[in-house]
Amino acid sequence: MAEILINSREDLRNEIFRLRGLEQEQGTAIKQRFNGPGALFSTILSLFWTPSDHEADKGDGIFHQDFLGLISRIVLPFTLNKTVFRHSNILVKALVGLVSQKASHYISEDSVSNIWDKAKELFTKFIKKDTKPEIVSYRKIKKD
Fold first, then answer.
1. Residue 82 to residues 69, 86, 107: CA-CA distances in angstroms?
2. Which of 11, 100, 104, 117 has its CA 20 to 30 A from that of 30?
3. Taking the C-alpha atoms of 96, 100, 103 and 107 in order, what is their torsion angle to the nearest 10 degrees?
4. Which helix (H) or strand (E) holds 124?
5. Is 75 a domain residue?
6. Does residue 96 sit within a domain?
């Protein structure tokens, strides 16, 4: 915010009038957002489906993930806390929950399918036998 220098009473009065005008403008904008049931419903939906300016820099919101990303937001912390961090205290479990919530943004159908394809390639390399098919030549053998 820009600093406003107030040197006299007149500067203070002008700043108070400016702030009161700004307060009235913001008050009317808020009243319009919550004017009726339709406006209230659209305000609540806009919290989830349209990212605000500060979220646009961070990435997509909660409901902008694909199905696998949404499932991983629940399954990842639950499985980590029930298996790996089973005998940990509440602080460690809370930290695991926070970190896994952030990590779930990197889990998507595309990333899982890429990892699945790489694992399948690796598996087929090890399973695949290096036997070359025998070349069978059918020559007419002359009988003596």
1. 20, 5, 20
2. 11
3. 150
4. helix 109-127
5. yes
6. yes
Interval 75-94: pLDDT, tens: 888 888 888 888 888 888 88
Q: What is the pLDDT of residue 54?
A: 45
Residue 115 lies in a domain: yes
Count of Cβ atoms closer than 10 Å to residue 103 Cβ: 14
Enclosing domain of residue 27: 9-50
Q: Please write the tens of the pLDDT for every residue from 13-32.
A: 999 999 999 999 999 888 88
140: left (phi over 0), alpha (psi -120 to 50) or beta: beta
CA atoms within 13 Å, Cβ hemisphere of 62: 8
Same domain for 71 and 107, yes or no, is yes
Q: Kindly tell me if the per-residue pLDDT of 53 is higher than 50.
A: no
For the entire predicted model, the pTM comes to 0.37
Token pair of 109 as six digits? 């159908």
Give the separation between CA 59 and CA 105, rounded to whole angstroms: 9
Give Dmax (Cα) for the chain.
129
